[in-house]
Amino acid sequence: MTKWEYATVPLLVHATKQILDTWGQDGWELVQVVPGPNPDQLVAYLKRPKTTES
């Protein structure tokens, strides 16, 4: 069975693609984007399989 680790990342509207590309290069998969604490902010939820060292 796959075990997952998760991360939440604040997204800046003017740099969303760059932020997601950077996390994607580290093996993170985007699960969902939700509104943040204020209307100008979004939060991304990401996951990736845990490695045996984690």
Report on this structure:
Helix content is 19%, strand content 43%. The chain has one helix spanning 16-25, and strands spanning 4-11, 29-35, 42-49. It has a 3-stranded antiparallel β-sheet, with helices on one face. It has one domain (4-49). A hairpin with a 6-residue loop joins β2 (29-35) and β3 (42-49). The model has no long low-confidence stretch (mean pLDDT 92). The protein is elongated and about 40 Å long. It has 54 residues and is α+β, with helices and mostly antiparallel strands. It is built from 1 helix and 3 strands; from the N terminus they run βαββ.
Q: Biggest sheet, in brief?
A: 3 strands, antiparallel
The fraction of residues in strands falls at 35-45%
SSE-based structural type? alpha+beta
Major β-sheet strand ordering: 1-3-2
Helix count equals 1
Shape: elongated
Number of domains: 1
Count of distinct strands: 3
Mean pLDDT: 92
Q: State the separation between the terminal residues, measured CA to CA.
A: 15 Å
Helical content class: 10-25%
Features:
54 residues, alpha+beta, three-stranded antiparallel sheet, 1 helix, 43% strand, elongated
